[in-house]
Amino acid sequence: MLIIGNPRNQQELSGRWRRAGKRIGLVPTMGSLHEGHMSLVRASLRSCDRTVVSIFVNPIQFGPGEDLAKYPRPFIRDCALLRKAGVDAVFHPSPSAMYPPGFSTSVEVSGTVLSGLCSPFRPGHFRGVATVVAKLFNSVRPDAAYFGAKDFQQAEVVRRMAADLDMGIDVRVLPIVREKDGLAMSSRNAYLSKTGRYAATVLYRALRAGRDKIVSQEGDIRAVKRAIRGVLGREPLARVEYLEISDAGTLEPLSSLGGRVSPTFGGRVLMALAVRVEGTRLIDNMCVRVPLGRYRRQIRRK
Amino acid sequence: MLIIGNPRNQQELSGRWRRAGKRIGLVPTMGSLHEGHMSLVRASLRSCDRTVVSIFVNPIQFGPGEDLAKYPRPFIRDCALLRKAGVDAVFHPSPSAMYPPGFSTSVEVSGTVLSGLCSPFRPGHFRGVATVVAKLFNSVRPDAAYFGAKDFQQAEVVRRMAADLDMGIDVRVLPIVREKDGLAMSSRNAYLSKTGRYAATVLYRALRAGRDKIVSQEGDIRAVKRAIRGVLGREPLARVEYLEISDAGTLEPLSSLGGRVSPTFGGRVLMALAVRVEGTRLIDNMCVRVPLGRYRRQIRRK
Question: What is the domain count for chain A?
Fold first, then answer.
């Protein structure tokens, strides 16, 4: 397994592979790998001839007061995992290789995908994400790139950017991988104490309560949100940052469950939330298909 | 010569060429081709195996009240010129192929290259340029791209963007091509009446006066600007939008000719101006090497 330290060398490597007709997959990560990342790696290994995993804790997507300094960086352990999995190359540039003096370009997505969710709480975050992913895409020039659905908005921002800038890259978004108790896997889970770790299961429990409410068609969108907030409210360590129910295709907040939603995700709605537990910001989400039936009739009655 | 109408087809064509080991050159234009463009085309034909010329009048780089609607589009004539020159493909997407509904990504360069010159007079212009050039680069995936020095700031914005986003593209900037009387070639010269056309030669005459002043070391930067404005002032049809003397490498405005300038352009300074003649906005510029000697001694004395 090769370890590549700067964009130019990665380009040369990818160029060689491309000229040999190889299909290249990229899994962009910030390292501190868990089963969520490894599910992306395996997907790439299955459908590509060469798999590159990038490990780069991207400073420009962290806001002031966020956890850039303390973000875990177990590089040796990560490399061992990736080598064992059969990855071909780890792209691991330094911050100064990515952002040399004079660097002054940014890539920004606007529009509905940034109308809510994490965007208002992390100003500049998605500009930092779009910029670094554009650089990673240009360095690796993959045919396909793999992202996890836990960062649902991030994946949609990347998909939008890749399409808008004609990058010709197939952006794949894979399901959230969860611990046995339902907690979505995240490198940030390591910040939690034992008590906090238990409290963190409230995100998944709350989303399930919301899904049950939608599937049973027992109430309107306010009732669904009440059900989710009810579960969250019973966990004293949880401080809710946002709870939104959006169109899973456009990420626009919904005001009712009866309206048309974009067909992108099979007409699904997205329930998404961010919750702080012991100061650690955790996010989770769930896509649910809204049953035809009562919700549609509600609309027709209006 | 192939005529390609959308990014995906261009990508396929370029992909075929790249797999065959061909070096690809791109000349991005808005059409209405003149000898300035053709000098870029010939440079690409000389050093690349395949040359693509893009013809796209990019709506997002025109501000409100600018000449988007009336910009000349003699596509058939342009194609005849390019076929005769030996160009391999014309990439000619429609605005809706480039900006389909939902398009919402922009690429923006900030920093010193945008500190002056055209930037304050055309808000959003260089964001439009960077965005469309990123798309053209991703569609054509050239090894080298050719730009004219008349749009000096544009070329520097593109160079900065390509480097910052790791595009791996060699951005070449070729000298201004002038009419016999010195007027820099531009598609917009066609807007001028016969009187206006004569008046327009004042830009080059003014720049030469500035160059003579610098080379002869007869005065400081204010004296150079006075010499340039003197020539411009004698042409009643010319309305000066800006006149700047900048570091040709960083595009930062200079306050003296004796200081250090960036080595990018061999320590040259850039004299640049924008002038309206009969409402038509004309730009021109000249790079001059500042003689060691009196200017340096001036500094030492301070």
Answer: 2
